Amino acid sequence: MDFALTAEQEELRRAVATVCEKFAEPYWQRLDREKRYPEEFVRALSEGGWLAALIPTEYGGAGLGMIEASLILEEINASGGNGAACHAVMYTMGALVRHGSEEQKRRYLPEIASGRLRLQSMAVTEPQAGSDTARITTFARKESDGYLLNGQKVFTSRVQHSDLMLVLARTTPIDRVIKKTDGMSLFLVDLHRAGSSIEVRPIETMVNHETNSLFINDLALPAEALVGEEGSGFRQVLDGLNAERILIASESVGDARWFLQQSISYAKERVVFGRPIGANQGIQFPIARAFMHTQAASLMRLRAAASFDAGKPSGAEANTAKLLASEAAWEAAEVAMTTHGGSGMTVEAGIERKFREARLYLVAPVTNNLVMAYVAEHVLGLPRSYGMEGIG
Q: Is residue 340 assigned to a domain?
Protein backbone atom coordinates (compact mmCIF):
# COMPACT_ATOMS: atom_id res chain seq x y z
CA MET A 1 0.00 0.00 0.00
CA ASP A 2 1.44 3.36 -1.08
CA PHE A 3 0.86 6.18 1.40
CA ALA A 4 2.67 8.79 -0.70
CA LEU A 5 0.79 11.76 -2.11
CA THR A 6 0.63 12.22 -5.87
CA ALA A 7 2.55 14.98 -7.61
CA GLU A 8 -0.73 16.85 -8.10
CA GLN A 9 -1.57 16.61 -4.41
CA GLU A 10 1.88 17.86 -3.42
CA GLU A 11 1.48 20.77 -5.83
CA LEU A 12 -1.90 21.54 -4.25
CA ARG A 13 -0.27 21.76 -0.83
CA ARG A 14 2.40 24.12 -2.12
CA ALA A 15 -0.19 26.32 -3.83
CA VAL A 16 -2.25 26.64 -0.64
CA ALA A 17 0.88 27.39 1.36
CA THR A 18 1.69 30.19 -1.10
CA VAL A 19 -1.69 31.79 -0.45
CA CYS A 20 -1.19 31.48 3.30
CA GLU A 21 2.22 33.19 3.14
CA LYS A 22 0.39 36.44 2.46
CA PHE A 23 -1.33 36.14 5.84
CA ALA A 24 1.46 35.80 8.36
CA GLU A 25 1.34 35.62 12.15
CA PRO A 26 0.82 39.40 12.73
CA TYR A 27 -2.38 39.18 10.66
CA TRP A 28 -3.82 36.39 12.81
CA GLN A 29 -2.70 38.06 16.03
CA ARG A 30 -4.43 41.27 15.02
CA LEU A 31 -7.65 39.41 14.23
CA ASP A 32 -7.50 37.57 17.53
CA ARG A 33 -6.96 40.81 19.42
CA GLU A 34 -9.81 42.56 17.61
CA LYS A 35 -12.13 39.51 17.61
CA ARG A 36 -12.50 40.01 13.88
CA TYR A 37 -13.36 37.60 11.07
CA PRO A 38 -10.53 36.90 8.54
CA GLU A 39 -12.52 38.34 5.64
CA GLU A 40 -9.45 39.02 3.49
CA PHE A 41 -8.12 35.50 3.97
CA VAL A 42 -11.44 33.83 3.18
CA ARG A 43 -11.84 36.00 0.09
CA ALA A 44 -8.41 34.96 -1.16
CA LEU A 45 -9.25 31.29 -0.69
CA SER A 46 -12.61 31.74 -2.41
CA GLU A 47 -11.09 33.54 -5.37
CA GLY A 48 -8.55 30.76 -5.74
CA GLY A 49 -11.31 28.17 -5.81
CA TRP A 50 -9.93 26.31 -2.80
CA LEU A 51 -13.19 26.33 -0.83
CA ALA A 52 -15.05 24.85 -3.81
CA ALA A 53 -12.90 21.72 -3.78
CA LEU A 54 -15.78 19.30 -3.13
CA ILE A 55 -18.36 20.91 -5.43
CA PRO A 56 -18.74 18.96 -8.70
CA THR A 57 -17.32 20.59 -11.82
CA GLU A 58 -20.76 20.70 -13.45
CA TYR A 59 -21.76 23.24 -10.79
CA GLY A 60 -18.59 25.32 -11.03
CA GLY A 61 -16.51 23.57 -8.40
CA ALA A 62 -13.14 21.83 -8.55
CA GLY A 63 -14.63 18.34 -8.34
CA LEU A 64 -11.85 17.11 -6.07
CA GLY A 65 -12.03 14.44 -3.40
CA MET A 66 -11.96 14.39 0.38
CA ILE A 67 -8.22 13.73 0.39
CA GLU A 68 -7.55 16.96 -1.49
CA ALA A 69 -10.01 18.91 0.67
CA SER A 70 -8.31 17.60 3.80
CA LEU A 71 -4.89 18.64 2.50
CA ILE A 72 -6.15 22.17 1.87
CA LEU A 73 -7.31 22.63 5.46
CA GLU A 74 -4.24 20.89 6.88
CA GLU A 75 -1.97 23.28 5.02
CA ILE A 76 -3.91 26.33 6.22
CA ASN A 77 -3.39 25.35 9.85
CA ALA A 78 0.18 24.16 9.30
CA SER A 79 0.93 27.63 7.91
CA GLY A 80 -0.25 29.23 11.15
CA GLY A 81 -3.78 30.10 10.03
CA ASN A 82 -7.14 28.89 11.24
CA GLY A 83 -9.24 26.87 8.80
CA ALA A 84 -12.21 26.99 11.18
CA ALA A 85 -13.09 30.37 9.72
CA CYS A 86 -14.18 28.75 6.47
CA HIS A 87 -14.12 24.96 6.78
CA ALA A 88 -17.90 24.75 6.97
CA VAL A 89 -18.13 25.91 3.34
CA MET A 90 -16.70 22.52 2.43
CA TYR A 91 -18.96 20.24 4.43
CA THR A 92 -22.26 22.15 4.76
CA MET A 93 -22.77 22.37 1.01
CA GLY A 94 -22.52 18.56 0.93
CA ALA A 95 -26.16 18.39 1.97
CA LEU A 96 -27.08 20.24 -1.21
CA VAL A 97 -24.82 18.08 -3.38
CA ARG A 98 -26.19 14.81 -2.02
CA HIS A 99 -29.78 15.64 -1.13
CA GLY A 100 -30.75 18.92 -2.77
CA SER A 101 -33.09 19.13 -5.73
CA GLU A 102 -31.61 19.80 -9.15
CA GLU A 103 -33.15 23.27 -8.98
CA GLN A 104 -31.46 23.98 -5.62
CA LYS A 105 -28.10 22.71 -6.88
CA ARG A 106 -28.16 24.76 -10.07
CA ARG A 107 -29.33 27.85 -8.24
CA TYR A 108 -26.90 27.81 -5.33
CA LEU A 109 -23.84 25.64 -5.96
CA PRO A 110 -22.30 27.76 -8.77
CA GLU A 111 -22.73 30.86 -6.60
CA ILE A 112 -21.13 29.10 -3.62
CA ALA A 113 -18.29 27.80 -5.79
CA SER A 114 -17.50 31.29 -7.05
CA GLY A 115 -17.61 32.81 -3.57
CA ARG A 116 -20.51 35.09 -4.45
CA LEU A 117 -22.66 33.22 -1.92
CA ARG A 118 -21.52 31.71 1.36
CA LEU A 119 -23.10 28.69 2.99
CA GLN A 120 -20.94 28.14 6.06
CA SER A 121 -23.40 27.99 8.92
CA MET A 122 -25.47 25.06 10.17
CA ALA A 123 -27.94 25.30 13.06
CA VAL A 124 -28.41 21.92 14.73
CA THR A 125 -27.43 22.09 18.41
CA GLU A 126 -29.91 23.36 21.01
CA PRO A 127 -29.37 24.39 24.64
CA GLN A 128 -31.38 21.56 26.19
CA ALA A 129 -30.76 18.80 23.64
CA GLY A 130 -26.98 19.10 23.34
CA SER A 131 -25.58 15.97 21.68
CA ASP A 132 -28.98 14.24 21.89
CA THR A 133 -30.05 15.68 18.55
CA ALA A 134 -33.34 13.74 18.49
CA ARG A 135 -34.51 15.90 21.42
CA ILE A 136 -34.40 19.21 19.54
CA THR A 137 -37.58 21.26 19.88
CA THR A 138 -37.19 23.79 17.07
CA PHE A 139 -40.30 23.12 14.99
CA ALA A 140 -41.30 23.82 11.40
CA ARG A 141 -45.08 23.80 11.05
CA LYS A 142 -46.43 22.98 7.60
CA GLU A 143 -48.39 25.84 6.06
CA SER A 144 -50.30 26.06 2.80
CA ASP A 145 -47.40 27.78 1.05
CA GLY A 146 -44.42 26.48 3.04
CA TYR A 147 -43.35 26.26 6.68
CA LEU A 148 -43.35 28.44 9.79
CA LEU A 149 -40.22 27.93 11.87
CA ASN A 150 -39.82 28.62 15.60
CA GLY A 151 -37.13 27.64 18.09
CA GLN A 152 -33.70 28.28 19.55
CA LYS A 153 -30.22 27.15 18.50
CA VAL A 154 -26.85 27.48 20.18
CA PHE A 155 -23.20 27.34 19.06
CA THR A 156 -24.17 28.28 15.53
CA SER A 157 -21.03 29.76 14.03
CA ARG A 158 -20.32 32.28 11.26
CA VAL A 159 -23.94 33.40 10.81
CA GLN A 160 -22.76 36.97 10.34
CA HIS A 161 -20.60 35.89 7.41
CA SER A 162 -23.04 33.59 5.64
CA ASP A 163 -25.73 34.28 3.10
CA LEU A 164 -27.36 30.90 3.61
CA MET A 165 -27.78 28.63 6.62
CA LEU A 166 -28.93 25.04 7.05
CA VAL A 167 -31.37 24.52 9.91
CA LEU A 168 -32.49 21.20 11.35
CA ALA A 169 -36.00 21.29 12.78
CA ARG A 170 -38.73 18.90 13.76
CA THR A 171 -41.66 18.61 11.37
CA THR A 172 -43.26 15.80 13.39
CA PRO A 173 -43.27 15.82 17.22
CA ILE A 174 -41.02 13.21 18.80
CA ASP A 175 -43.97 11.52 20.52
CA ARG A 176 -45.56 10.83 17.12
CA VAL A 177 -42.67 9.00 15.45
CA ILE A 178 -41.69 5.34 15.72
CA LYS A 179 -37.96 6.05 15.73
CA LYS A 180 -36.99 9.18 17.62
CA THR A 181 -34.58 10.33 14.91
CA ASP A 182 -37.45 10.39 12.40
CA GLY A 183 -39.62 13.46 11.88
CA MET A 184 -36.78 15.99 11.51
CA SER A 185 -36.26 18.00 8.34
CA LEU A 186 -33.45 20.10 6.92
CA PHE A 187 -34.09 23.59 5.58
CA LEU A 188 -31.97 26.01 3.56
CA VAL A 189 -32.55 29.49 4.95
CA ASP A 190 -31.82 32.72 3.09
CA LEU A 191 -30.44 34.85 5.92
CA HIS A 192 -30.98 38.11 4.06
CA ARG A 193 -34.70 37.41 3.76
CA ALA A 194 -35.05 36.16 7.32
CA GLY A 195 -34.76 39.68 8.73
CA SER A 196 -35.90 40.15 12.31
CA SER A 197 -37.31 36.62 12.49
CA ILE A 198 -33.83 35.46 13.51
CA GLU A 199 -32.20 37.17 16.48
CA VAL A 200 -28.46 36.52 16.68
CA ARG A 201 -26.70 36.82 20.03
CA PRO A 202 -22.89 36.34 19.92
CA ILE A 203 -21.31 34.02 22.49
CA GLU A 204 -17.94 35.18 23.77
CA THR A 205 -15.45 32.31 23.95
CA MET A 206 -11.74 31.77 24.58
CA VAL A 207 -11.04 31.59 20.83
CA ASN A 208 -11.87 33.92 17.96
CA HIS A 209 -14.41 31.46 16.55
CA GLU A 210 -17.47 33.72 16.33
CA THR A 211 -20.31 31.49 17.48
CA ASN A 212 -23.83 32.48 18.42
CA SER A 213 -27.18 31.71 19.97
CA LEU A 214 -30.13 32.01 17.59
CA PHE A 215 -33.69 32.85 18.53
CA ILE A 216 -36.06 32.02 15.66
CA ASN A 217 -39.53 33.53 15.81
CA ASP A 218 -42.17 32.88 13.13
CA LEU A 219 -39.68 32.51 10.28
CA ALA A 220 -41.69 31.93 7.11
CA LEU A 221 -39.98 29.56 4.69
CA PRO A 222 -41.12 28.71 1.17
CA ALA A 223 -41.74 25.06 0.32
CA GLU A 224 -38.60 24.99 -1.81
CA ALA A 225 -36.48 25.70 1.29
CA LEU A 226 -36.86 22.04 2.26
CA VAL A 227 -33.76 20.00 1.42
CA GLY A 228 -34.58 16.45 0.34
CA GLU A 229 -37.58 14.65 1.80
CA GLU A 230 -39.52 15.90 4.77
CA GLY A 231 -38.77 13.85 7.87
CA SER A 232 -35.36 12.61 6.72
CA GLY A 233 -33.32 15.61 7.85
CA PHE A 234 -31.45 13.76 10.56
CA ARG A 235 -30.07 11.24 8.09
CA GLN A 236 -29.07 14.10 5.77
CA VAL A 237 -27.13 15.81 8.56
CA LEU A 238 -25.60 12.50 9.64
CA ASP A 239 -24.45 11.93 6.07
CA GLY A 240 -22.22 14.99 6.34
CA LEU A 241 -20.76 14.28 9.77
CA ASN A 242 -18.07 11.93 8.48
CA ALA A 243 -16.84 14.65 6.12
CA GLU A 244 -16.80 17.10 9.01
CA ARG A 245 -14.79 14.71 11.22
CA ILE A 246 -12.19 14.13 8.47
CA LEU A 247 -11.79 17.83 7.77
CA ILE A 248 -11.52 18.70 11.47
CA ALA A 249 -8.91 15.95 11.86
CA SER A 250 -6.97 17.51 9.00
CA GLU A 251 -6.94 20.90 10.70
CA SER A 252 -5.65 19.26 13.87
CA VAL A 253 -2.88 17.53 11.90
CA GLY A 254 -1.97 20.94 10.50
CA ASP A 255 -1.94 22.46 13.97
CA ALA A 256 0.31 19.67 15.24
CA ARG A 257 2.74 20.24 12.35
CA TRP A 258 2.86 23.95 13.17
CA PHE A 259 3.51 23.36 16.88
CA LEU A 260 6.21 20.82 16.10
CA GLN A 261 8.00 23.18 13.74
CA GLN A 262 7.95 25.92 16.37
CA SER A 263 9.34 23.51 18.96
CA ILE A 264 12.06 22.15 16.69
CA SER A 265 13.24 25.60 15.62
CA TYR A 266 13.31 26.98 19.15
CA ALA A 267 15.01 23.87 20.57
CA LYS A 268 17.82 24.29 18.04
CA GLU A 269 18.25 28.02 18.53
CA ARG A 270 17.77 28.49 22.27
CA VAL A 271 21.08 28.04 24.09
CA VAL A 272 21.14 27.53 27.86
CA PHE A 273 24.19 26.44 29.90
CA GLY A 274 26.30 26.53 26.79
CA ARG A 275 24.31 24.23 24.49
CA PRO A 276 20.98 24.14 22.59
CA ILE A 277 18.11 23.01 24.77
CA GLY A 278 17.23 20.49 22.06
CA ALA A 279 20.30 18.49 23.09
CA ASN A 280 18.49 17.57 26.30
CA GLN A 281 16.41 14.41 26.16
CA GLY A 282 13.84 16.08 28.39
CA ILE A 283 13.18 18.46 25.50
CA GLN A 284 13.77 16.27 22.44
CA PHE A 285 11.92 13.14 23.55
CA PRO A 286 8.51 14.88 23.97
CA ILE A 287 8.97 16.52 20.57
CA ALA A 288 9.84 13.19 18.95
CA ARG A 289 6.86 11.45 20.59
CA ALA A 290 4.46 14.20 19.49
CA PHE A 291 5.85 13.91 15.95
CA MET A 292 5.21 10.16 15.84
CA HIS A 293 1.67 10.56 17.16
CA THR A 294 1.04 13.22 14.54
CA GLN A 295 2.27 10.92 11.78
CA ALA A 296 -0.04 8.14 12.96
CA ALA A 297 -3.02 10.51 13.13
CA SER A 298 -2.29 11.82 9.65
CA LEU A 299 -2.27 8.31 8.21
CA MET A 300 -5.59 7.51 9.87
CA ARG A 301 -7.01 10.73 8.45
CA LEU A 302 -5.85 9.78 4.93
CA ARG A 303 -7.37 6.32 5.33
CA ALA A 304 -10.68 7.86 6.38
CA ALA A 305 -10.59 10.29 3.45
CA ALA A 306 -9.79 7.50 0.98
CA SER A 307 -12.67 5.43 2.35
CA PHE A 308 -15.00 8.41 2.05
CA ASP A 309 -13.91 9.06 -1.55
CA ALA A 310 -14.51 5.40 -2.39
CA GLY A 311 -18.08 5.68 -1.17
CA LYS A 312 -17.51 3.16 1.62
CA PRO A 313 -18.93 3.41 5.15
CA SER A 314 -16.36 5.52 6.96
CA GLY A 315 -17.86 6.38 10.34
CA ALA A 316 -15.32 4.38 12.34
CA GLU A 317 -12.37 5.75 10.38
CA ALA A 318 -13.59 9.35 10.44
CA ASN A 319 -14.28 9.35 14.17
CA THR A 320 -11.00 7.60 14.96
CA ALA A 321 -9.08 10.13 12.86
CA LYS A 322 -10.79 13.01 14.62
CA LEU A 323 -9.88 11.71 18.08
CA LEU A 324 -6.29 10.80 17.24
CA ALA A 325 -5.61 14.07 15.40
CA SER A 326 -7.15 16.32 18.05
CA GLU A 327 -5.15 14.56 20.77
CA ALA A 328 -1.95 14.74 18.70
CA ALA A 329 -2.48 18.47 18.17
CA TRP A 330 -3.05 19.04 21.88
CA GLU A 331 0.04 17.01 22.78
CA ALA A 332 2.11 19.03 20.30
CA ALA A 333 0.63 22.24 21.71
CA GLU A 334 1.68 21.37 25.24
CA VAL A 335 5.14 20.35 24.02
CA ALA A 336 5.52 23.68 22.23
CA MET A 337 4.42 25.61 25.29
CA THR A 338 6.84 23.69 27.53
CA THR A 339 9.72 23.96 25.05
CA HIS A 340 9.31 27.73 24.83
CA GLY A 341 8.95 28.15 28.57
CA GLY A 342 7.86 31.62 29.63
CA SER A 343 8.14 33.02 26.12
CA GLY A 344 5.43 30.61 25.00
CA MET A 345 2.98 32.59 27.11
CA THR A 346 3.64 35.79 25.20
CA VAL A 347 1.29 36.87 22.46
CA GLU A 348 4.23 37.75 20.22
CA ALA A 349 5.40 34.13 19.98
CA GLY A 350 2.02 33.02 18.63
CA ILE A 351 2.01 29.82 20.67
CA GLU A 352 -0.72 30.87 23.07
CA ARG A 353 -3.19 31.69 20.27
CA LYS A 354 -2.82 28.33 18.55
CA PHE A 355 -2.74 26.66 21.99
CA ARG A 356 -6.25 27.93 22.68
CA GLU A 357 -7.48 27.04 19.20
CA ALA A 358 -6.13 23.48 19.35
CA ARG A 359 -7.94 22.79 22.62
CA LEU A 360 -11.32 23.28 20.96
CA TYR A 361 -11.23 20.07 18.94
CA LEU A 362 -10.99 17.82 21.98
CA VAL A 363 -14.64 18.68 22.60
CA ALA A 364 -15.93 19.93 19.24
CA PRO A 365 -17.67 19.24 16.95
CA VAL A 366 -18.13 16.12 19.05
CA THR A 367 -16.43 15.39 22.35
CA ASN A 368 -13.84 12.64 22.23
CA ASN A 369 -15.72 10.75 24.94
CA LEU A 370 -18.60 10.31 22.52
CA VAL A 371 -16.17 9.17 19.83
CA MET A 372 -14.92 6.44 22.16
CA ALA A 373 -18.49 5.44 22.98
CA TYR A 374 -19.25 5.20 19.25
CA VAL A 375 -16.22 3.01 18.55
CA ALA A 376 -16.94 0.84 21.61
CA GLU A 377 -20.48 0.12 20.44
CA HIS A 378 -20.32 0.16 16.64
CA VAL A 379 -16.83 -1.22 16.08
CA LEU A 380 -16.13 -3.39 19.11
CA GLY A 381 -19.70 -4.60 19.68
CA LEU A 382 -19.85 -3.53 23.32
CA PRO A 383 -23.21 -2.62 24.91
CA ARG A 384 -24.45 0.91 24.29
CA SER A 385 -23.39 3.18 27.13
CA TYR A 386 -25.96 5.90 26.38
CA GLY A 387 -27.81 7.58 23.49
CA MET A 388 -25.51 7.65 20.46
CA GLU A 389 -27.67 8.69 17.53
CA GLY A 390 -25.88 11.90 16.67
CA ILE A 391 -22.22 11.11 16.15
CA GLY A 392 -21.53 9.03 13.07
A: yes
Q: Do 110 and 155 belong together in one domain?
A: no
Q: Does this model's pTM top 0.90?
A: yes
Structurally, how many domains does the chain consist of? 3
* Full domain range(s) for residue 348: 235-378
Write the pLDDT tens digit of every residue in 209-245.
Answer: 899 999 999 999 999 999 999 999 999 998 788 999 9
Residue 294's pLDDT band, with cuts at 50, 70 and 90, is very high
Single residue among 114, 147, 162 that ends a domain in this structure: 114
Per-residue pLDDT band for 1 (boundaries 50, 70, 90) equals: confident
Query: Does 385 reside within a domain?
Result: no
Examine the fold and report which residue of 189, 206, 229 is the final residue of a domain before the chain moves on.
Answer: 229
Instruction: Assess whether 145 and 184 both reside in one domain.
Output: yes
3-state SS of the chain?
CCCCCCHHHHHHHHHHHHHHCCCCHHHHHHHHHHCCCCHHHHHHHHHCCHHHCCCCHHHCCCCCCHHHHHHHHHHHHHCCCCHHHCCHHHHHCHHHHHHCCHHHHHHHHHHHHHCCCCEEEEECCCCCCCCCHHHCCCEEEEECCEEEEEEEEEEEECHHHCCEEEEEEECCCHHHCCCCCCCEEEEEEEHHHHHHHEEEEEECCCCCCCEEEEEEEEEEEEHHHEECCCCEHHHHHHHHHHHHHHHHHHHHHHHHHHHHHHHHHHHHHCEECCEEHHHCHHHHHHHHHHHHHHHHHHHHHHHHHHHHHCCCCCHHHHHHHHHHHHHHHHHHHHHHHHHHHHHHHCCCCCHHHHHHHHHHCCCCCCCHHHHHHHHHHHCCCCCCCCCCCCCC
